[in-house]
Amino acid sequence: MNKPSFSISDLDQCPLGFVAVISPNDDMSALNTLEQVLPEIKHKCYYSKSVPGMALAYRTDHLSINSLSLKGYDAVLLGSMVSEIVSYDKTPNWAVSEIINKKYGELKTLQGVFAMVVLDWQNKTISVVSDLLGIRPFYFSTYRGCIVLSDRAEAVPRLGNAKIDTMGMAGWVFFGKPVANRTIFDSVKRIEPASVSVFNANSIHIEKFWFPSISDEKISHEDLEEGIYQDFINSLNRLLQPYSRGTVLLSGGFDSRLCLLSTLNQTNIFLDAVSVPYNSAERKIVNQLTQMTGIECHYVSLIGSIWDEFDSMWYRHPDGYVRWRNLSFLCAKRYRTSRLFIDGSHSDVSLRHSRGGPADDRELTLSEAHDYVWSVSTHYNLENLFKLSFTNPMEKIARAALEEQGDAIGWSPKFCKLWNIHADERRNIAYNYLQYDHLVPSIQPFYDRALMERRLKHPNSMFTKTSYHNMLGHRFPGPGKLPHSDDLEQSVKNNYLFCRTLWKNVPSVIDFIIRNRKLFKLNHLSPRILEYSLGLKRHMYIILELMRFVKLEEELKRYNIELDLKRIFS
Question: Coil, helix or strand for 321?
């Protein structure tokens, strides 16, 4: 088994990748602010440039940060992009030209997980372009009159005087991540998805270049399946242009299987696979797939490896947290068996859940839309931690946060059919943090505009799990007809492998409960919290829910903020 190329301690020592500053004063205050935010700028691995009123620095040793040299401009691409209308090698320069000339409309053809920053040194403006769903994280904040832009939300808060954004914290508590463009810090905002944000010393101008629209088209199941498959193949081929070899992150489900079989069928790249099977059912399907296709699969176990520590997977950062299958895929990405990982994530948005809602084929009233959004977004396990009387005050704030997100999307009668696209994208930010920090490139062919737009034209009933399986079986007889591992009897009898590592965190959970024992005296904590987290009926999800707060407490300590649950919830 290949060993990771970094140590666990690196997770807490990842420096900022990019920082730019604009000052209202035509002096060196921008550079001074930059040096405070990024003291490591003096290290040789950083490129830096400044003029009176504006300054820039970014890591030159970072695989996912690339620069373009243009007269009078600096352009920095964080992540990677391809275009539907321009060849791969010309895409970055084409995108910069469109940004400089303010021709934003065609930017919707860009595909990938990225943020592109263009600095105009003469006019002292900075333009930031976000990918379609804003999955590549990028933030802006203010510090001593300057605007600070960075790829990390903690760039300014780590300097001190950080304060909590109540609505952002409400989103974190109830939904696992802040909503709209908020973070848990009141001074830090997130760049909006599918937008160009233009900053100067006195203003911020935001222009959207894509917004998913809904229409209703009559089409046969067969034609829809054919269209979905062709969209996927087009996306995969675009993304694979610069690569000669790759590794599929393989599970027992349909998404990674489509990635594997389509890559083998459509390209000549050298391919292998890596898997972190949750249970024996999943391992059985992965074994059958690899035997039928003849590719080599590397199995990564969470048990008995350096990843048998929950802390090493749960990367702390202020904009959400990693959960569920993503933990396993993060483990797989640490084992560098390839220069590229082919990842089946984002398929829920593109294929299945993007037309969600009660009574999918009819228009919803505003009240129904609100109820649906709340029901699908909240963490049901909170009721096993806190009594309703305790969470009710923050619930009002959390509902207001969802209203804010809804206002940004637009409360149309078919609002719910857009909601999941905007709700799902936020959870992927945490997933991608480690990828960016540790230089592991990956592509997500399901993250495609054509796929999303096609699914928004048809109700979920037109493309179900059965339809998906039929599509695979029709195009790939043999491996495509294998069942989903969740449908095998063994899958019910196995816990997630990584849940065993949670028990190692029970001492942290006990310590957290003891520190917050006043909440018991005030009758705020649910009695079930002890039974489910510490007793014989230990429940993995309850432990996870508690660990979220333990990790939040640790995160806030970095910014000299005390986690006072009573104050937060009141």
Answer: coil
Distance of CA 153 to the CA centre of its chain: 14
Question: Where does the pLDDT of residue 445 fall: very low under 50, low under 70, confident under 90, or very high at 90 and above?
Answer: very high
φ, ψ (nearest 5 deg) of residue 59: -75, 130
Asked if 182 and 141 touch (Cβ cutoff 8 Å), the reply is: no
Instruction: Provide the H-helix boundaries in 38-144.
Output: 91-100
Using N-to-C axis directions, what is the helix angle for 221-239 and 254-266, rounded to 10°? Answer: 70
Torsions phi, psi of 207, nearest 5?
Answer: -130, 120
Q: Are 427 and 176 in contact (CB under 8 A)?
A: yes
The residue written with tokens 């160009």 in the block is 196
Q: How many CA atoms lie within 13 A of 251 on its CB side?
A: 19
For residue 475, count CB atoms less than 10 angstroms from its CB and return exposed for 0-12, middle for 13-18, buried for 19 or more: middle
CA 548 to the chain's CA centroid: 17
State the pLDDT at residue 398: 87
Sequence-ordered alpha helix ranges (H) in 202-309: 221-239, 254-266, 280-293
Distance, in Å, from the CA atom of 109 to the CA atom of 523, rounded to the nearest integer, reads 54
Nearest to 120 by CA among 210, 209, 49: 49
Beta-bridge mates of residue 271: 246
SS (H, E, C) 477-493: CCHHHCCCHHHCHHHHH
As a whole number of angstroms, the distance between CA 85 and CA 106 comes to: 9
Pairing verdict, β 341-342 and 245-249: parallel
Phi-psi region of 44 (alpha: psi -120 to 50; beta: other; left: phi over 0): alpha
pLDDT at 453 over 70: yes
Contact yes or no for 126/119 (Cβ under 8 A): yes
Task: Tell me the torsion sign for CA atoms 57, 63, 65, 68.
Answer: positive
556 Cβ contact partners less than 8 Å away, ≥ 6 residues apart: 562, 563
pTM score of the predicted model: 0.88
Three-state DSSP at 335 gives: coil
Cα separation, 268 vs 88, whole angstroms: 18
Largest CA distance in the chain: 69
